[in-house]
Amino acid sequence: MARSEGSSSNLNEKSSRTLRCSLAGLLLSLGCLISQPCLARPEPAPLSWEQLDSQQREVLERYEDEWDDFSPQRQQRLARGAQRWSRMSSEEREQAEKKFERFKTMPDEEKRELRRYAERFNEMSPDQRDALRDRWREFRNLPPQQRDLLRERFHAWRELPGPQRQPLMDCMNRRLGGAGEDCSRLLPPARSPGNRR
């Protein structure tokens, strides 16, 4: 019997860890996919074209003529994006382009949801973002079958009505705040293969 309890405890610990990794990965991906400014941040100052470094200007060349017409927020976002783009390897650039193409084909409601997730990511403290990135790395290091199962469970959760989804969100918020709570118990089982979209 002790062996069964140990196995159950170990399974619950693994499920909790994989759930955290999966949700953390999702939030991190969304934050990277669509960088929206946090509403609580102060209004940034306009950024002149001359303030950009040569690599940023090269990446943003097509916007030079209309640069001064952009809002300061858009200028800052584009400048940060150009800086990130300049530092990416060719493989990372290819992945970013694929993600952007996927985003462009998403329904508007999914785009809005991604933007909300990105806002939440941008509102996190640096420590919370680092914790989320660490969990994403853990998720990426899981065996493919385990990642797929977590994705399926997450998709099943996303299909629940809002009130049924809220307890998991509350739990994840507490975890990001440092609570040692097991949120995996709130995630529904994966859909059967016949019920997948």
Automatic annotation (TrEMBL):
InterPro entries hit by this protein: DUF3106
Entry-linked PROSITE patterns: PROKAR_LIPOPROTEIN
Keywords from the named record: Signal
Record flagged with keyword NAD: no
Signal peptide from the UniProt entry: 1-40
Region (Disordered): 82-101, 175-197
Biased composition (Basic and acidic residues): 89-101
Name the record gives this protein: DUF3106 domain-containing protein
Organism: Banduia mediterranea
